[in-house]
Structure formats: structure tokens, C-alpha cells
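Students often ask why inverse folding is considered easier than folding. One informal answer: many sequences map to the same fold, so there is more than one right answer. In these notes we will look at a single instance of the problem. The structure comes first.
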């Protein structure tokens, strides 16, 4: 397997900066983008230069450090930290990893505020951001190992959007399972839904799997039912942006439709996600904030006008798959199955036991 370039990383020491693969340019160009201000980090998250729930979390944590690192006044350090954190929180609303990572950084700062000088505090925050990145890499690997046994020799697997290396600091979530199964020597075929309107499936998943030498076939989103009926799909694995306490799961728009189709065809539908994607504050999917994006992503996606000027457009970026359609959630600690409030709470509680 060809190692893919690192999706998100910290460059230098302090002062340093955030570097990410500019995913808006893929697959035609593999180029890095450096973010040296918090505004640049915000913009990179907002326009999906970096995207995918875990990668957004890592980028946001490093974005806080970018925004605070030149602040040397003790008296106003906490206020500046709040300003930077609150600003980054406005970049995208749905992936809980963004809020989870920023809160982790804030808690770390709060534990030492008033005791350490600004430079030492900022170093502590950089260490925490790097730990978030490192833990994410480890979680991806563990998700892959936990889910690999679900894939049987010769199966067809449908995935939607990109939940791979480009969406995390490691090998991904849904795609990590595929990478791990491939490492075990299994052969299988992946169908990647193109994922309108921003084409993460076509531009990112198809590219990433092709780079990794995994058998991948690209289909348009509206072909999934036909491909299932033809008997080409034996399982579905997707990622997640936020999982509510009852197991309802927000993921890229179109995921819910795939889950309904999978149920209609008797195909198991799995979600792969790290613990940082669970949000027990939210009881059910109905409360998950769904990002609404610019209508031009639909009317002039990829630079070409494809709809009449002035037409009304609705562009929710995510949808929610109800827990009852999910066969299991593949986590870094194993597969949660069945998916309901009690098994989810049991899983989250187990994280604090060891
Ligand atoms: O809008 P995006 O590209 O950030 O949406 C990404 C997804 O929906 C992914 O499936 C999800 O974040 C899981 S990534 C491991």
C-alpha cells in the first residue's frame, strides 16, 4: 500500500503552523496549504480544504494554538483563548469532533491558567493538540482491526463520502476497516458513491483507494439501488460526524438514503467512528445541527453553471440515519451491536474504566 501524504500536521515548534492537504484541489493536484493565522485555519475548515470529522477536530485543536501562540500577556490570555476557540467553533456545525477537540484544549488551559506563563501554557496546548492527532491515528488503526473480520472474501462494499485517511490523522474509519481487511489478505470490491454536491466520494475516496491499490468502482449516488439489486453489494460501511445517545448517526447527505436502500435489500449497514464522534449530550438525531451550505455548490459545482439562474435551492450537507437501520458501530474498542441507547451508554462508560 502506498503511504498517503499526511492530511493534517503541525510544522515546526513554537511558533509553528498548521499544514494540511488542500482537499479542494484533489484529485488533480496534491498540494499542501499552510495556515499561519486562526482566520486561515477557520477558512480551511469552512471551505473543506480539510474535512472529515476527526481531521476537522485535529485541525481545530492546532488552529487554537496558531491563534494563541503570539499572545504573551498573562492578564488577557484566557480572553484571547476564548475568542480564538469561539471563532473556530463557528467554522462548521455538525461534526462534534470539532467541538470536542476545542473543549479538550480549553480544559487543558483552564487546568494551568494563572500558574504558568503564556509561553508555557501555549506549549501545553500544543502538546495537547499533538496528543489529539496521535490518539486519532491510534484510534483509526484500532477501528480497522475491530472491523476487518466483518468483511468476507469476495464481498462488494458500498461506502459514501470519504471516511478515509483524508478525513482523519490516520488511516480513516470506514476505509480503515477496508485497509485492515486488505492487509489480512482479503480481496473485495469497493463501490464509492460519488457524493453530490461536493463529490468527496469521486474526488477523495476513489483517489485514496486507488492510491492504496484497493479495487474501487465509482458510481453516481442515484445508482446505489440498482447496484444493490444486481447483487453487487454485500455490506455498507460509512463514517459519522456525530452519534447521538440513542445511536442516531449524522453523516454526509445521502447516507440515510443508502441505509434505507440497504435495509430494503437485506444488506447490513455499518458505521465506523472513534469515541470522539459520540455526543451523549444529544439524545437523538433530531437535535443534531445540520449544516446548510451555499446553494452555488449545487448550481455551479466544480465551476460550471448547471441550473437556471435564480432557482431556489436547498443544500443540507448532512442527514441522520436512525439507529434501527444500523447493524453495528465499529469503534476503536470493538463493534457496538445492537445499536441503541443502552449499548451506546455502556460503550461510552467503558472508555472511562481503563
Ligand atoms: O463535509 P465533509 O466532507 O466534512 O463530510 C465528511 C463526512 O460526512 C464523513 O463521512 C465523516 O466526517 C466521517 S470521516 C471519518
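Output (designed amino acids):
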Amino acid at each position: 500500500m502506498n503511504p498517503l501524504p499526511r492530511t493534517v500536521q503541525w510544522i515546526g515548534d513554537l511558533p509553528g503552523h498548521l499544514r494540511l492537504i488542500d482537499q479542494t484541489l484533489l484529485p488533480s493536484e496534491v498540494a499542501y496549504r499552510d495556515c499561519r493565522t486562526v482566520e486561515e485555519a477557520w477558512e480551511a475548515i469552512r471551505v473543506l480544504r480539510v474535512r472529515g470529522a476527526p481531521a476537522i477536530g485535529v485541525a481545530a485543536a492546532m488552529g487554537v494554538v496558531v491563534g494563541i501562540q503570539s499572545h504573551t500577556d498573562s492578564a488577557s490570555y484566557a480572553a484571547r483563548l476564548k475568542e480564538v476557540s469561539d471563532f473556530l467553533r463557528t467554522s462548521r456545525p455538525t461534526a462534534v469532533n470539532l467541538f470536542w477537540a476545542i473543549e479538550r484544549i480549553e480544559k487543558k488551559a483552564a487546568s494551568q491558567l494563572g500558574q504558568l506563563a503564556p509561553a508555557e501554557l501555549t506549549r501545553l496546548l500544543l502538546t495537547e493538540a499533538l496528543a489529539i492527532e496521535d490518539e486519532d491515528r491510534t484510534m483509526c488503526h484500532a477501528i480497522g482491526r475491530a472491523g476487518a473480520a466483518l468483511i468476507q472474501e469476495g464481498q462488494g462494499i458500498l461506502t459514501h463520502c470519504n471516511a478515509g485517511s483524508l478525513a482523519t490523522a490516520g488511516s480513516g474509519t470506514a476505509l480503515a476497516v477496508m485497509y485492515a481487511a486488505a492487509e489480512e489478505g482479503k480481496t473485495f470490491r469497493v463501490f464509492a458513491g460519488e457524493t453530490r454536491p461536493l463529490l468527496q466520494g469521486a474526488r477523495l475516496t476513489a483517489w485514496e483507494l486507488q492510491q492504496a491499490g484497493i479495487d474501487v468502482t465509482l458510481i453516481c449516488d442515484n445508482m446505489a439501488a440498482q447496484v444493490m439489486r444486481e447483487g453487487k453489494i454485500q455490506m455498507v460501511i460509512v463514517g459519522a460526524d456525530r452519534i447521538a445517545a440513542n445511536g442516531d448517526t449524522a453523516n454526509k447527505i445521502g447516507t440515510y438514503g443508502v441505509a434505507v436502500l440497504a435495509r430494503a435489500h437485506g444488506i447490513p449497514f455499518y458505521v465506523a467512528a472513534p469515541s470522539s464522534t459520540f455526543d451523549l449530550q444529544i439524545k437523538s438525531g433530531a437535535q443534531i445541527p445540520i449544516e446548510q451550505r451555499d446553494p452555488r455548490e449545487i448550481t455551479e459545482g466544480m465551476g460550471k453553471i448547471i441550473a437556471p439562474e435564480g432557482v431556489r435551492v436547498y443544500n443540507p450537507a448532512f442527514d441522520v440515519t436512525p439507529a434501527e437501520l444500523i447493524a453495528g458501530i465499529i469503534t476503536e474498542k470493538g463493534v457496538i451491536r445492537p445499536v441503541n441507547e443502552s449499548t451506546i451508554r455502556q460503550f461510552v462508560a467503558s472508555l472511562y474504566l481503563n
